Amino acid sequence: LVQQLFEKILERPPTEGEQEKHIALATDYLRGLGNQEGIKKLIQTLILNTDFVYRNEFGQGEADQYGRRMLSPRDASYALAYALTDSSPDAELQKAVKEGRLSSGEDYEREVRRMLARRDQFYIVDESVHRPNDLSSFTQMPIRELRFVREYFGYQRLLPIFKDNKRFGASYDAAKLRLVSETDRLVDHILEQDQNVFHELLTTDKFYVFHSGDNEVMQASADRIRRIYEHFKDTGWSEFEVDDLGKHTDFIAAEKMRGIDVNRLFKDRRYNPLNSFKTQLTSFTLRLDKGQAAAAPYNSFPAHGMANAASRYGGRFQSPEVARFYNIDMSNWDYQPIQPAAIESRKGLLTSPAWLIAHAKNTETDPIQRGKWIREKLLAGSIPDVPITVDAVIPEDPHKTLRERMEAKTGDQYCWKCHQKMNPLGLPFESFDDFGRYRTEESLEYPENLVEKVKDKGAPHEDLRDVYKTRPVVSTGYLSGTGDKTLDGEVDNAFELIDRIAQSDRARQSMIRYAFRYFMGRNETLSDSKTLLDAQRAYLESGGSFDELIVSLLTSDSFIYRKPTSDTL
Amino acid sequence: MSLHRRQLLQAAGIGLGGVSLAQSLAPSLVKAASPVAASPVATSLGPRRFVFIRKSNGVRPNEVALPTFSDAQKKADKDRLPLDVELANHELPEWLQQLDPHKQQLCILQGLSCKMSENGHWSYSSVLGAYKSGRNSLSGIKRATIDFELAKLFPSPFGHVELSLTGNYSSFRTGIVSGYSAPAPHQRNYCYADPQTAYNELFKSVTNPEAVDSDNQMLAFLQGEENFKAKVLAGYEKQKLSNHVQSIERIQARNKQLTGLAEVIKRHLPDLDPVHANGGQNASTPEKQQAMTDILVAALATGLTNVVTYTIDELSTPIKGLPGNESDHISIHELGHNGGYSGVPADEIRETIRVGHIQQVSTIVDKLKSIPEGNGTMFDNTVVMYFPENGEGHHSHGTEAPFVILAGDNCRLDMLGRYIRLPYHGTEGHKTIGNWYTTLLNAYGNPIEHYGDLDLEMSRKKLDQSGAIKQFMPA
């Protein structure tokens, strides 16, 4: 029994000592509690064993000349499985352990490459984004690749930052979930391409906006709307009565127009779908009558059943408001059915609305956090915590931009010591507001600056933001700390800043160092320098393949060997 | 059939449910991990108790309006203008009339908003934490909920007890299940889902000392094993194991405390009807509520806890055996969409459900009033709050969240015996649940500047919105 439960719960047989101790314990349990309760207690005991939660990796066999021991094949199978996936070792890894084929760097490489190529597993990327009927949040790549990029950039941290619908000009909550899932989709896409990955992440101008990732489905959905629009365009549909619909029943049925059940038309005299008909035609007209490339396939009105496009789960495809983050005017939206597609005024994940919101506050931008992120994550710098004596609040002033208010606060010598490392890197991003919308003017959102109060409810394409007085955005900044004199210096805006950082060796090294920490589960030490150099070489020689970087890391001595630290000897 | 590790976890967690120590330890492990540091104010106050009763489907503001309002008061209330009315001069709405004997200890508090919590159909932990929880996601849990914050001020062997009567529309959840409070950021609390489980777990030291003995044996065994393992580790790795060991030690300490409390527990041990055995799927909803009330009071009376959070219903709680609809199987969600049953309109059934709730609230107050403490009764030191988990309706936006509050003579808040309507959402002087929870914390010894997230409309309008509600604070 003890052996069986060990294998089920801890996925390994007990050692001799464990066997003996647990048999004694089980005997006591069974005697005191009876059979069923006693066995339950034994199960509880094993689940509360820390081996249930943690893995021990002490290595096995004789120590080599450096005092290192290689991971046991079983430990290695777990280490590899959890480095790339959320699951225990798959069947092939288990088989490799059994057959003694997990005891050399080559063995590791074979398994890592095999696992990296797998696309037959589905992983939910984010439980708080995923909506079984509507919004897909899954990947078929080994989840840890995507998760590293996610955790490194931290764009999903926008989720707990909640925002005012009025300032967004539409419903923010649903749009933010789509925003995160589409950013995940973009990262998934870049990782799947697997070329110049870090550079692409930093500089791509192509994004997913209101797109499921399935080009065929999105193209078909956009085409369908165009067919409906073209079919009715010159029919005088706005004057239609129910009887007029009768002339188009075959078309309506073939296109499955929403809210119109042709089977009920004329059979039930009270059935009148004119409102649904005209609402969608009005909306479709708006989407195509200005010569737009294609119609965004969103729903003109809420209704159960079939939507104008389907999510990757086959459910309703919703939340077109996501377009607003990218400054898309929904009343004149040049929809791109094939994505990712180029978007104006964007360059890489640091200009993705998701990253920008995640590094902003509820009601305003946060140039300090944006700058701090760049300093620490891309330039391998460090910033001390805010001294407890500092009242880190930016004073309010209805006549000044945030930049002006901030400069007044952080400009003195004491503050500037640290802020000079952050502000000049974060301030170029003032070209994006706290919803990640590109801007050249900053709204001074104080009641006394209100220019126009806009209605609170409207159609999906209407912008419901109040209008305030504005001041021009100043987006200049200063790049320092790349270690490259040709790159350091003044920048005009975020795009120039990003371009220069993306060229810098330090930024690439910094990202590789973070990848090391993520996949090894620990900080690097001096003895890991060879691993880091090898990883960099693998990445560069492969034309920027993230897969090759991972192979290099997971077959390195840093991963394969374990050595006791001095204080445990 | 091969059993996967994850399935096994589920089997242990759900299948064994009420009796699985792994599950029953889970909340305690979490609780035990947070250090207890009562404030000097709280210590000087002696024992204070808080009961949070969450109800679903909203409380519509007009439901708590007083029927005997003057025309001017009626208009002000309807226009959501501030009001402060003595309850003594008025009748209570019909469904609240069971609270008539306690009128002087009652406050109907209107005008609080909860837009920073989830709203809609469900709010999960967000209504007690004043944050957006991203539905029920773990990553969305931003901070310890208010009940846990208060529990820290008034420590007890269990620290905090959570009860719930919830289900999947057709059957009740049973055993120990995920709850609606949070002991810390990114940590979910677990709660007792049926009266028998709550009874078995809370009063185990008296009702089943053999089980406690084997728990202790297991804990001692684990303590030895884990301590041994921790010896070969260092730094962060060692800390992980030490936390585990510490939790085990704390549970052992608690078990010891509980054994010491055996006499008191015996005195207050409730009688539980056999209908509740094995999860009590055949018990009617009112029977379940009554049994939970008995357990709730006993948990407070025995001193096992000073804070109870009780989800009296949730949209998916099956309603069976409701007076007037005895043979119906009612869905609260359906009521929210105006669906009636057996010819009884939805609004009437909603009222009957609320009457049932208030009967429990009134019983809790009566029972606490009958237990002597100091120069008075246990109720003197208790605050009971009955409130909607999701604001003002079935699909709510959180602009209003009416609270029905009952508190004894030693209550530190100046609000009793009154119907108070605070300024409406988005206007000068408006207060949110964040302000209300800050008031509770400040009054009972936690000087926090502001608890909870800020309201964005108040922020946009640059209106002051942080801190306690001053008019309620002790002088």
What report would you give on this structure?
The complex is a heterodimer of chains A (569) and B (475). With 569 residues, chain A is mainly alpha-helical. In chain A, 45% of the residues lie in helices and 5% in strands. Chain A has helices at residues 2-10, 16-33, 35-47, 73-84, 91-98, 105-117, 143-153, 165-168, 172-193, 197-203, 215-232, 242-245, 249-255, 274-288, 322-325, 353-358, 367-378, 402-410, 413-419, 423-426, 494-503, 505-520, 529-541, 546-554, 557-560; strands spanning 69-70, 123-124, 138-139, 206-207, 341-342, 441-443, 450-452, 467-468, 470-472, 477-479, 489-491, 561-562. In chain A, the strands form 6 sheets. A two-stranded antiparallel ribbon of chain A has the order 1-12. In chain A, helix 22 crosses helix 24 (546-554). The radius of gyration of chain A is 29 Å and the shape is globular. The two termini of chain A are 36 Å apart. The model of chain A has no long low-confidence stretch (mean pLDDT 94). Chain B is α/β, with parallel strands linked by helices and 475 residues long. Helix content of chain B is 39%, strand content 13%. Chain B is built from 17 helices and 14 strands. In chain B, the strands form 4 sheets. An 8-stranded mixed β-sheet of chain B has the order 2-14-3-13-12-1-7-4, with helices on both faces. In chain B, strands 5-6 form a two-stranded antiparallel sheet. In chain B, strand 8 and strand 9 (325-331) form a beta hairpin. In chain B, helix 8 runs parallel beside helix 13. The interface between A and B is large, with 42 and 48 residues.
